[in-house]
TrEMBL record:
Protein name: Uncharacterized protein
Highest classification ranks of the organism: Eukaryota, Haptista, Haptophyta, Prymnesiophyceae, Prymnesiales
Composition bias, Basic and acidic residues: 1-15
Region (Disordered): 1-36
Organism: Chrysochromulina tobinii
Length: 129
């Protein structure tokens, strides 16, 4: 009698492992909700941090702040990539929308690879503050 062959398991790449196992944080561009700022800019730089321990995504103006906008990961209704033709992306490539009623933000990355990673980098300490 022959032993059954086990199905092949998906081998994760190192990039997939980083995304799954390491806390993520980094800078992104966030679209302003009310049009442009004083200087006519439609986008502002924000610091985004995902905290797996607390199940939250924090968006703040500076690194180290708790977050001006905080999303509960379990309550997100949408995380969707946007095409340049979508009104929310304002013609830019590599944008995505995060929605948790009543909040909604549009974030912009500089490349498709960064968008797929959420442009967030693994944190060194592994702890959430």
């Amino acid at each position: 009698m022959h032993a059954k062959e086990s199905p092949r398991l998906h081998q994760r790449t190192s990039e997939e492992t980083d995304i799954l196992n390491v806390p993520l944080e980094g800078k992104m561009q966030k679209k302003h909700q009310k049009g442009t700022d004083f200087w006519g800019n439609e986008w502002g730089q924000r610091y985004v941090r995902v905290c797996d321990d607390k199940g939250r995504m924090h968006i703040s103006k500076k690194k180290g702040k708790e977050g001006d906008i905080v999303f509960s990961m379990s309550d997100l209704s949408e995380v969707a990539p946007l095409s340049p033709t979508d009104q929310d992306s304002a013609g830019l490539l590599h944008c995505f929308r995060v929605t948790q009623a009543p909040m909604r933000v549009v974030l912009h990355c500089s490349s498709e690879r960064e968008r797929m990673r959420g442009r967030l980098r693994p944190r060194g300490d592994g702890a959430c503050k």
